[in-house]
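Re: beginner question about structure tokens

> Can someone show what the tokenized structure looks like for a real chain? I only ever see the sequence side.

Sure, here's an example I had lying around. Input first:
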Amino acid sequence: MPVKAEPDFVGLDIAKDQLDYCLNDRTEGRCPNTTAGRVLLIQQLRQLAHPRVIAEASGGYEKVVVAELLQAGIEVCVVQPGRVRALAYAEGLLAKTDRIDARLLRRYGQKVELRLTVPTDPATANLRELLEHRRALSTQLVEVEGRLALAGPTLHKLLEVQRAFLEQQLATVEKLIHEHIDQNPDLRAKAERMQQVKGVGPILAATLLAYVPELGKVESAQLSALVGVAPHPKDSGPRSSPRHIRGGRPQVRIVLYMAAVCATRWNPILAAFYRRLRANGKPAPVCLVAVMRKLVCLLNRLIQNPNFALAS
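And the corresponding structure tokens:
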């Protein structure tokens, strides 16, 4: 068997206006974060035999850059900034500039085994944008409703107008989400399959389709860790601490939590599971997390196996 070539790791620090890159120990550079600048960056990367770009998630500014790199056939790994910063602390590196970050990202890629980023399906990307807008509108609506109780007569009228506007916008974006899923046969089939489970509504189905592309493609234990509902041990010597969930994808976990609350009331199997845990003395939050984990594993099984039938 031929030996697979070692990647040429490239650190890329992405900002709104500029891109700082570190090709190797001797070659560094900077280009504007524009169409022409990104073309220049790709030309630099193609001089390497097997480039693999390591970049941080930077609040959305990385989306266009990553998409164009993938379209050009260049491997990309998008990593969590906190983990990269932990490497800097471990190295005793306190200074922070864009060029230092580019070098640090390159070293991080060399030391840690990372998953390659795969191109996002356009339909999934559009659905994700709609859901992000819906979440922003929902947050604003909650804030406005919270202020209404303490507002005076003049401000109360203004807040009422704002609330009506946000409710209208929320209804519009939810209609767009429904139409978008309905127009895509693959998304529609998966959404309908998931909503066969009592407690799973259109928003949870859409959220899983948008943010968990691994659904139905990986084992349930791995999916639980990806979503962030797998409890992790924290033991040391004779001490055994309670296990806690951490990491994962918070935008999925928030919606999954509300679905689990609904399932404990209306889904006969998950409700019985929840009551059994409570009867055994488990705290309510622990039981809800267990229901969340059961729910996501069930949905994963439904998508994996079209012949899997739910208990009546």
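Each token stands for a local structural state, so reading them left to right follows the chain. The two ends are 51 Å apart (CA to CA).
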